[in-house]
Here is the input.
Amino acid sequence: MNVSTEQLFTDARTHNGFTAEPVSPAQLRQLYDLMKWGPTSANSSPARIVFVASPAAKERLLACMSPGNVEKTRAAPVTAIVGMDMAFFDKLPFLFPHADAKSWFMGNKEFTDSTAFRNSSLQGGYFIIAARAIGLDCGPMSGFDNAKVDAEFWAGTSVRTNFICNLGRGDRGRLFARSPRLPFEEACRIE
Amino acid sequence: MNVSTEQLFTDARTHNGFTAEPVSPAQLRQLYDLMKWGPTSANSSPARIVFVASPAAKERLLACMSPGNVEKTRAAPVTAIVGMDMAFFDKLPFLFPHADAKSWFMGNKEFTDSTAFRNSSLQGGYFIIAARAIGLDCGPMSGFDNAKVDAEFWAGTSVRTNFICNLGRGDRGRLFARSPRLPFEEACRIE
Here is the structure.
């Protein structure tokens, strides 16, 4: 499928308002079927996602959001809770079948936790770019009560919430002015 | 610039061998000038990158790599050390000028550390996709001695290494068979 770097990076914006245009289950599958191919350490693929689409589920989520994030989350057709499976290693016999990668992680909580956090966040980057690739706009957020979201949406599992991202067709009239980025010389060097 | 989702996701692979084709400083700038636009929390943009290109710098890096990562890192024309500035909040008056975002982080080490790790990893996802967008192949790695890399490349700074990524033109003849991904039903649900 053809896309452009303008659509993915240079013209894309974080959206705070969304039109009423719906997001279909087929689009959510298309999004996942792109992002899942992004690389992770030992193919660990720790990200787990709840797509909050129904009004009832949205109300449960709104009760967990910081005040400044409630209205835009209510307006978004779908809100994705991007979680990380802290027991991702249980799936390594399927995901990484050519070595006993599960044994690298079992019983090493610090290594496991950092691997889950780093790689589910990498997958969060793939998620945002993949959403833009299929024509959706994103509104990623960190302002919510993690413990409440975990209790509402991941109870009885080994998944914990990483971040939350509104999805839909953004209303460009409600964008803020774009903030600057660091110049190459401040963020990078070549040795 | 036109790209395709095949180039970015479905046909792209993690590479273990690279051709001799060089990577120019102009390409590294082009890569950064795409990835920098990806969203981060409060526009915090904590990622910092050393592009290791010279033979002398490469030797210093090779001494820090796990044995299984030495030869492929030697073969790559450029290896990127993707770091995270744990004092990223010092740049928020420039990056997020419309609020006193620096005060949200100062003195809150747990919040600051998790923000740096999550958002530099998100930027790692943007980095990998942006590299593919400009025609480079990636070989991201977690197998290295973090303390040694930090001492060699980030001494005297507040930056710590997140992950390392080889860059170049991949040698598709040296690819392993592709590992599977979790089906939608195992990684996602719609509520």
